[in-house]
Design a protein that fits this description.
The complex is a heterodimer.
Chain A (H helix, E strand, L loop, with lengths): L4 E12 L2 E13 L4 E5 L6 H8 L8 E10 L2 E2 L5 H7 L4 E4 L3 H4 L6 H13 L3 H14 L5 H5 L8 H13 L5 E5 L7 H18 L2 E6 L2 H7 L2 E6 L2 E7 H6 L4 H9 L49 E2 L6 E2 L16
Parallel strand pairs in A: 3-8, 3-9, 6-7, 7-8
Antiparallel strand pairs in A: 1-2, 1-4, 4-5, 9-10, 10-12, 11-12
Helix pairs in contact in A: 4-5, 5-7, 7-8
Chain B lengths: L9 E16 L5 E17 L3 E5 L6 H8 L7 E6 L2 E2 L5 H8 L2 E4 L13 H11 L6 H14 L16 H13 L5 E5 L7 H18 L2 E6 L2 H7 L2 E6 L2 E7 H6 L4 H9 L5 H6 L40 E4 L2 E3 L6
Parallel strand pairs in B: 3-8, 3-9, 6-7, 7-8
Antiparallel strand pairs in B: 1-2, 1-4, 4-5, 9-10, 10-12, 11-12
Helix pairs in contact in B: 3-4, 3-5, 4-5, 5-6
Classes of the chains: A alpha/beta, B alpha/beta.
């Protein structure tokens, strides 16, 4: 069976005063129906831009999707007309963004924002849309839906707003939800509520989920497959257990060793990645992680290494020395 | 109530600290309609060389507590006793001298550095303000030394903040805090805005500086994992009060207050095997408004073990094991 979403060799560039930035530099991955996949990386790794590119939400200028295919339900999203793409966004693909205050319209009631989606995509009449909105608020755990539907975003807490965003994302029975740092702005107890809600609902309704985050704990709890991004490329991908326990890319190893852990007693020192994050306007020809890498060899300067099978079945690493990296990270020493 | 005591003489004592902000209505005739009880009775003691973590979610009063210690806010009630001296009783001149010993590192390395000053000027400014090192040449040398101490090349002194990455800027913020040779530093979410790989570098730098200069840190943070890594003792705050205080490993291995438990449960661990084995139910509800906090124990509406009396009496912090303080009537 074909995957639900198949991203192939996607490239997105931004033209800036300092030069052209290849924010997404040839990434490929697939999402199966109902599956939860994480894209993890630090600021500037291209994880958000890759999601926005799938949805064709890159502002042009300065951005441009220069190459690639995004096959979704048998069509290449890159070839659709703008009108067809609008049907897909909020229809078969729901979206949840980081900042619920800026992604909701401050001058429309919650109710209107949900019914608008239904009227646009499903040509529902007002009464049917309202009934569905009440049902959706119930689904996302908002008590007293009739009262809430009349309220404006500023009258809700951050957690409530994110629940509304999830309700809107689910309104048209999507096949896929793309959630870009959905809980980063929230406190940890609220973050836990929202993530449990999202994972519970996507499982129950059979919706696939792409979760974009910098939080390695969130990935470990919720995602089956993981893509680790660095400087616009996927440097390692595979099943979460393999990535966490036997990473095969030096950046993944470094990332896991940098995280202080709640379940470990105090340690003397963290083992951080040396150096600074990459400057995308000045990337050298070879592997972007090379200047910070403890495994780097001369060959790393020639070209960015392609993803190749390494380690567990389904695990891929973009490192020339992937098979030499057998650091056991997730095992208590 | 007795403040949780420590064996050696305290460097900082916070006693019954309260900070209430007025809430007003109306533009011309402003009427007082209530108070935000940002900090509502906080007691703790810190000894020299210790790192105390102050954790909690937004609005719990952790930052306001820090600002009160820095005298950036005037407390509504309570005392802040630093090295045996009540800060409220000090005349301005002596207070100014004392403030040299207490410095702060802020969260956002983008907004806490003046964009129009060069890094060298930013670091030298506290020395200028306090009239230390008037000799320009020696001041430049001191700036270079501070940059090196914080892991930056001395030539960064001629750069502007916008030319640097977030991690480098945070190092500048730390160098500035060190400029006056302080003994006590308040780190207010000092690593929260940074990416993990850079965050780890800064955490290590803070630890290194603590050892090298014998610093005492009040480490205010919402990220419990960083707190566990860096702190000797931890105080958990909820709605303006400390609900639990204990040695770091004791608090994380043996959390007693239901709020602390909920908070620790909510943090996912970066290990899929552990996460898959864990059953987990997030705590219900959201933090209530500090304008109108619940009666009795402020956590009782969300608490999984609350009994009827919890809504009536406010539980005081009490020592249930040596050094382990909990404000919950249901904890034995």
């Amino acid at each position: 069976m074909a995957p639900l979403l198949d991203v192939r060799d996607l490239h997105t560039e931004f033209r800036t005063g300092a030069g052209t930035i290849r924010a997404v530099d040839g990434i490929s991955y697939a999402v199966e129906p109902g599956e939860t996949v994480a894209i993890v990386g630090e600021s500037g790794s291209g994880k958000s831009v890759s999601a926005l590119s799938i949805l064709r939400l890159i502002p042009d200028p300065p951005g441009r999707i220069t190459h690639g295919e995004v096959r979704f339900l048998g069509r290449d999203l890159m070839q659709l007309s703008d009108a067809q793409m609008r049907e897909v966004r909020g229809g078969d693909i729901g979206m949840v963004f980081q900042e619920p205050m800026t992604s909701l319209n401050p001058v429309l009631t919650i109710g209107r924002q949900i019914t608008e989606t239904l009227e646009q995509h499903r040509r529902a009449d007002r009464a049917a849309a309202y009934r569905r909105a009440v049902e959706l608020l119930g689904l996302v755990g908002i008590a007293d839906p009739a009262r809430r539907l009349k309220q404006y975003p500023h009258q809700l807490s951050g957690g409530m707003r994110q629940r509304v965003m999830i309700a809107i994302a689910l309104a048209c029975d999507p096949k896929l939800i793309i959630a870009d740092e959905p809980t980063t702005a929230l406190d940890v107890t609220i973050q836990a509520q929202i993530l449990e809600l999202m994972s519970g609902l996507t499982r129950r309704l059979g919706v696939a989920l792409i979760i974009i985050t910098h939080n390695l704990g969130v990935v470990a709890r919720y995602a089956k497959g993981v893509n680790v991004m660095y400087a616009g490329r996927i440097v390692e991908s595979g099943p979460a257990a393999a990535i966490y326990h036997e990473p095969r890319h030096p950046y993944t190893v470094a990332l896991l060793r940098s995280v202080p852990r709640l379940d470990r007693p105090r340690r003397a020192r963290l083992d951080p990645v040396d150096g600074q994050p990459p400057d995308l306007t000045r990337l050298a020809r070879g592997c972007a992680f090379r200047p910070r890498c403890r495994f780097a060899i001369d060959a790393c300067a020639e070209a960015p290494p392609p993803l190749a099978a390494a380690g567990a079945p389904g695990q891929f690493s973009a490192c020339l020395r992937a098979n030499e990296i057998t650091a056991k990270v997730g095992v208590v020493a | 109530m007795r403040a949780p005591d420590v064996p050696t003489r305290a460097l900082l004592e916070v006693k019954g600290l309260r900070k209430h902000f007025p809430v007003t209505e109306g533009v011309i005739a402003r009427r007082l309609i209530g108070e935000v009880k940002a900090v509502d009775g906080v007691d703790f003691t810190m000894r020299r060389g210790e790192t105390l973590g102050l954790v909690g979610e937004s609005g719990c009063g952790k930052t306001t507590t820090g600002r009160c210690i820095l005298l950036l806010e005037r407390p509504t009630a309570g005392a802040i006793i630093y090295d045996g001296v009540d800060l409220a009783s000090l005349p301005p001149k002596e207070l100014r001298a004392l403030r040299r010993r207490i410095q702060v590192i802020f969260q956002d390395p983008y907004s806490s550095l003046n964009p129009r000053l060069k890094v060298g000027e930013i670091i030298a400014e506290p020395m200028r303000v306090h009239g230390i090192e008037p000799n320009a040449k020696r001041r430049t040398a001191r700036v270079a030394e501070l940059l090196t101490t914080c892991g930056l090349d001395p030539k960064f002194a001629d750069r502007y903040p916008h030319e640097m990455s977030g991690g480098q800027r945070q190092r500048v913020g730390i160098a500035r805090a060190l400029a006056l040779d302080p003994e006590f530093i308040i780190c207010d979410e000092a690593v929260s805005a940074l990416d993990v790989s850079i965050q780890a570098q800064i955490v290590n730098l803070l630890e290194h500086l603590r050892e090298r200069f014998g610093l005492t840190y009040l480490f205010i943070a919402h990220d419990l994992s960083v707190v566990r890594h860096l702190c000797h003792r931890v105080a958990v705050m909820y709605l303006g009060r400390i609900v639990e205080l204990a040695d770091c490993d004791e608090l994380f291995d043996n959390p007693l207050h239901p709020y602390t438990r909920a908070l620790l449960d909510a943090v996912p661990v970066p290990d899929p095997t552990i996460e898959a084995a864990r059953s987990f139910r997030p705590v219900k509800g959201e933090v209530p408004s500090p304008i109108n906090p619940p009666s009795g124990c402020v956590f009782h509406p969300r608490c999984p073990i609350a009994v009827e009396t919890c809504s009536q009496a406010r539980p005081e912090l009490r020592e249930v094991r040596p050094g382990h303080w909990v404000a919950c009537s249901e904890v034995a």
